[in-house]
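Good morning,

Attaching, inline, the backbone tokens for the sequence recovery test we're adding to the shared suite. The designed sequence is right after.
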């Protein structure tokens, strides 16, 4: 498996590490477990479940009974058991270990392949909630969960789709699972969820793709599945609340030539330049780093970027951004102008009789 590491750039004797932006914690929070409020409090299991959640002395016995019920011949008993295990795993982290040790994982995985939508949804979400415990991830994957989760991503309800994406994300946090998930057919389905899902589905899909696409072969699969068009569209829509997430996914993709070509073909350069002009500080920083990667080995792409008017907003960002943004953008600007025979420093720009904003793109791309 080829996992791509951070790239070290050197310029003027200084080292700049990992331009792809690492502080993604606020852009990508882990997928949540169940959405609250989606179950009726008047269900016949409410009192039984409440007692099980609050009475730790009885919880082990109760969990064992629920695991046994998963193998019942009655679909209603299976549904009730899966639902209750789903909620137990959601509400009490310690229950995730207890449920796994009681042998629930394999029978829950078998429910994911059910043709009953409700049973499938409960099975998927119970597995998601169990995967929130790091100790369970390897056991879930080794028990054969990946292919059934991919099937749920293809055939399930909207909630099953979203929660399957989240579960695959959790499993992808074990490095060895990333290739297996990619080869199972998950990437095109996640790209489809990114294109056509609701806002929660788009967020879940982008988070999963960000994790999976640290592996080179998954990057190529994502590009072949048409990921670039929805990424560019979401980055261009500042009202989507997806600009950061889409840009972060793009930042891990553009290390492969196929992604650079697809990005340019889908009109991504003008969108990135617009982000540098009007986006938030973090968005500007991500866009600048992406542009550097696009232009690193291509005179043609450098020409396109310069003609879109990227130099003035890059210079402005290098003077007004955060310290880290200034470092990254100054590297972009230094490299950009030296690519075209110019040596740029803040002092020289300030003293130049020609404002940077008035430098002709035709000069920069000679």
């Amino acid at each position: 498996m080829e996992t791509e590491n951070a790239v070290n750039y050197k310029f003027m004797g200084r080292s700049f590490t990992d331009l792809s932006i690492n502080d993604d914690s606020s852009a990508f929070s882990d997928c949540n477990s169940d959405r609250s409020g989606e179950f009726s409090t008047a269900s016949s299991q409410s009192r039984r479940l409440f007692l099980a959640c609050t009475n730790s002395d009885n919880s082990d016995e109760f969990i064992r009974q629920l695991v046994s019920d998963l193998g019942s011949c009655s679909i209603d008993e299976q549904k009730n058991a899966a639902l209750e295990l789903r909620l137990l795993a959601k509400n009490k982290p310690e229950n995730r270990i207890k449920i796994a040790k009681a042998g629930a994982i394999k029978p829950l995985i078998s429910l994911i392949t059910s043709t009953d939508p409700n049973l499938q949804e409960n099975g998927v979400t119970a597995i998601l909630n169990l995967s929130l415990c790091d100790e369970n991830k390897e056991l879930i994957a080794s028990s054969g969960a990946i292919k059934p989760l991919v099937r749920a991503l293809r055939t399930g309800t909207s909630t099953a789709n979203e929660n399957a994406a989240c579960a695959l994300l959790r499993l992808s946090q074990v490095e060895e699972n990333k290739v297996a998930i990619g080869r199972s057919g998950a990437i095109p389905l996640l790209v489809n969820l990114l294109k056509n899902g609701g806002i929660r589905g788009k967020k879940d899909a982008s988070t999963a793709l960000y994790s999976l696409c640290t592996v080179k072969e998954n990057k190529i699969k994502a590009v072949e599945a048409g990921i670039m068009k929805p990424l560019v569209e979401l980055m261009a829509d500042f009202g989507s609340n997806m600009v950061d997430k889409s840009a972060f996914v793009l930042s891990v993709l553009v290390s492969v030539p196929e992604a650079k070509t697809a990005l340019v073909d889908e009109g991504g350069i003008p969108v990135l330049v617009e982000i540098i002009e009007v986006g938030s500080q973090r968005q500007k920083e991500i866009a600048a780093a992406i542009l550097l990667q696009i232009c690193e080995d291509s005179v043609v792409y450098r020409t396109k970027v310069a003609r879109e008017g990227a130099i003035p907003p890059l210079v402005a960002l290098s003077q007004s951004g955060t310290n880290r943004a200034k470092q990254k953008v100054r590297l972009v600007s230094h490299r950009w102008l030296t690519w075209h025979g110019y040596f740029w420093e803040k002092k020289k720009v300030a003293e130049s009789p020609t404002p940077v904003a008035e430098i002709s793109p035709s000069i920069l791309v000679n």
